[in-house]
Every structure is written in structure tokens, then in C-alpha cells.
Amino acid sequence: MYTSGLLFIGTNEIIIIVVLALLLFGGKKIPELMRGLGRGVKEFKEGQKDDQNAESNTNTTTNNDTVNNQR
């Protein structure tokens, strides 16, 4: 199946999507939805950073324990 053509959205398609969103949600609800989406993305990124920090601390502790056990 030819899917690479589906990856590119033109100006007309974007306009249609925006108009449909306005019709479905209304002008007052869209800023609230975007605000919630932004908060979700922010929390997701913070969660990723926390996981990376926890992994690096675990790796450092494990490496130090291994070095101490070898002595």
C-alpha cells in the first residue's frame, strides 16, 4: 500500500480540519483543550526527565557497588 502520500498534509486539508474543529468544539472550548494538551505534553516531558535521572542514579550506584565488591 502506498502510504508516503498520507504523511503530507496540504493547506486545504489543514483549513478543513480547523473548520471542523471549530464546528465541533466551538470557539470557547478550543483554548481550554489546547491548554490541557500543553499541560499533558509538559508533564510527559518531565516524566521522561525524571526516568532518565533515576536510571542514571541507579547505574551510578550499581557501578559503585560493583567496584567496591571487587576490592
From TrEMBL:
Positions with biased composition (Low complexity): 57-71
Signal peptide residue numbers: none
Transmembrane parts of this sequence: 6-25
Coiled-coil ranges (or none): none
Region of interest (Disordered), ranges: 44-71
Family from the record: Belongs to the TatA/E family.
Known function: Part of the twin-arginine translocation (Tat) system that transports large folded proteins containing a characteristic twin-arginine motif in their signal peptide across membranes. TatA could form the protein-conducting channel of the Tat system.
SUBUNIT field: Forms a complex with TatC.
Protein name, entry field: Sec-independent protein translocase protein TatA
